[in-house]
Amino acid sequence: MGFGIEAEFETVFIGRTDELRNLQTSWNTKRMFGIYGMRTVGTSRLAKEFLISVKTQYDELVYVNFKEISDITQMYVNMCAQLKLFIESQTNDIKSWENLLFSAVSSSKREYVLFFDNMEYFLDNESAIRKCVDLIKFDNVKVVLTSTTTVLFANVRHVYHVCELHPLKADESSELLKAEARDVDYGEYLDRIVHLSEGLPLLLLMIASELRENRGMLTAKDMAQLLAECRLPILSREFYPEEDRVSHVYQQFISRLSHSHRSSYSELDYIPGSFTADEAGSIIDAPTDVEHRVLIPMVRRHFLNYDSTSRRFNIQGILRECIKTFFSLRNAHIPEVRVRYIKTFTDVMRSISWRYSSQEYASALADFGFEQPNLQKLLLEMQYTTQDAYTFFIQMATESSKFIERYLSGYAEKFYSECHRAADRYGTTMDKAVIDLAVGSLYTNVKGNFKEGFIKCSAALRILQRGGKSLQLATAYQRIGYNLLHQDENEEAINNFKKSLAITSVSGKQFNFIAIQSLNSLGTALAKLGKFKEAEKYYFSSLQKSRITLGHHHPNVGTALNNIGRMYHQKHDEATAMKYLQEGLEIKKKSKAADLSQLDSLINIANTYIAVGEFAKATQALEESQVIVSRQYFPPLSEIATINDTWGTVYLKQGQLDKAADMFDKAAQERGTMTYGGTPHVESLVNVIKVAAKKGDYRKCIQIGKQVLLFSDNVLRQRPQTIVISDCYECLANAYEKTGNISKAKVTLESLKLELTRLGSLHDCDSNNYQLLEIQKRLKYIEHNLQSDTFTNDNKRQRPV
């Protein structure tokens, strides 16, 4: 053999099972084998392993490394030398060397393999490519070639096996890393290191070298942190040979691009996530045929990845780092790329947010799964806005605020703050109203800060009132009403809902949606006050208007029916409640309503079944809701917590206390991450207390009860009519009594009495006789307890906790 490929390996060969098997299977039917992939992904190594595996099926191997030769003549001289073919008088005549080689091969009875490695260095030389292909016209010759650029030979397609080599899989990367640095304790950091290696053998070998050579001074934890913070420098240190330094390898790789392609590559790097051909065309300002002129050539050269399922392109992470380090955009060029980016992804945001609230909900969230990093960057770009770009951001604040609120809330507050500043420079007072309205909704619905939410919505209202009746004014009244409803300012909430309704009832079709919302909100507020007859009137008006405006089979009709069902559940008319809830869910399913809307119906159905003791049916509804949650791209924490809370109630009612405790604990943890110390979090904590009391774990009951009381001022300030604090006092009093601390039990009962008296006064002011009667019953029971022998016998021995 002309090349001792077996002798040169220092590292073990791991993975590539499928690729190697496919190459071996094709050996008898194919004549040419092309192995292509990104720089250092292992094309040469796979080719060599392949050739070793079939070495009994050929007689002579000729190896040419195109990285080390300068022209075709040198290629022929190299090949002839390996075959021990010489011309008596040295000549640079290409034809002479070609004839010598072709004549020797064609007249021989030996089987030859010609291995052309790193062929990308000669891809610009069409003659060299053609001559490599010409060699397979001889029956006793097979050609194996490797390259970072995929070469498609249409005229020999029937005998050509193409192997596109992708990065190693996670398990293969782990195996290689552990094989190269055997004595390292990776612990919990293995997966993180593997992820940051991106499945590229060069990176894995350099990481292993760092861990191995430092003799334990650099731990797996240290390496994970270094890779996350400065991956390129740590794997490119000066004491490594230049050809092994990661930065040098990939800098040279990118440098092979033409100037125009390199410029486009840097501009595409401005998109942090994956992208479509249309998005790429907009960013590099090449709207026509960008796919074939720019993207496909880059894919063939393995500078871009392409996912055929999603039809999206992306840049490998280590290449992004090299672009930012060595090929970053010139400062003068950044503003124009930024404006193109903002315009492009504003359109993407608008499309996704519009579809999110329509029957195309599923496709909107699927797209958002890909676009999330791009849209996060879009919101952050607001800090650099100019007058030209400002228009796009205000468009987003106006049309996409609900979507931003739900799925980009971590970036929303800074985004709106920058919008407000920009409005001072480029906008109008009406722009500020739009922004304040969005921020008010964010505080109300996401952060649970109702006071701040009210302040922001009120600031917007003051501005909008100057412009007369408008859709935005009706929306402002609606949102203020919703905020006040959460603060238990029920009468004021109703007044605002009525003001919103008054605007919409004398306006055009574009006001229909907000009119339906206002009717529904009035129903919710009146049902909360126990005024069910009035609530029915508004709920059914909302249902009728939805059907007239949207048709009988629309998601909003399903929502209206769901709300009516929930009202009957509040009235304890479970049979009627179930009728409307089931009908609403059926319409939502048929009309492909948003998953979260269907979840709301399923949870209401589960609660209704729990109320009548049909736990198997409640379980079925909850299991269906979990299926919906499992297919979400972004786990809806609020809904997951509600589902877990409902599971807890099912188990509690069934006497399965351990399971109930587990579910309530999960709900409390989830709600704590969203609004620590807020009403939903405290409600879950009180559920934990109730189960602990049932289990006789009074110490836990007291411990968590004290924690809840630390939050009580904030909870009652935000939600004055919540009963969660009174429930906590009741559980605590019982726990103190059970543990023999009678004085503490009595003090806690007195606190409970004061809290119930306060609640009774609030319900009396609201003329909420329905709730007032419930409070009075509880007060009567407390008075009876305080008069019992347990609390009137001063000589009773105390056992403090």
From TrEMBL:
Keywords for the protein's UniProt record, in alphabetical order: Repeat, TPR repeat
InterPro entries reported in the protein's UniProt record: AAA_14, P-loop_NTPase, TPR-like_helical_dom_sf, TPR_rpt
Pfam families: AAA_14 (PF13173), TPR_12 (PF13424)
Domain of life, per lineage: Eukaryota
Domain (AAA): residue spans on this chain: 30-172
Keyword Repeat belongs to the record: yes
TPR repeat intervals: 474-507, 558-591
Keyword Acetylation: no
PANTHER family referenced in this protein's UniProt entry, alphabetically: NEPHROCYSTIN-3, TETRATRICOPEPTIDE REPEAT PROTEIN (AFU_ORTHOLOGUE AFUA_6G03870)
Protein name: AAA domain-containing protein
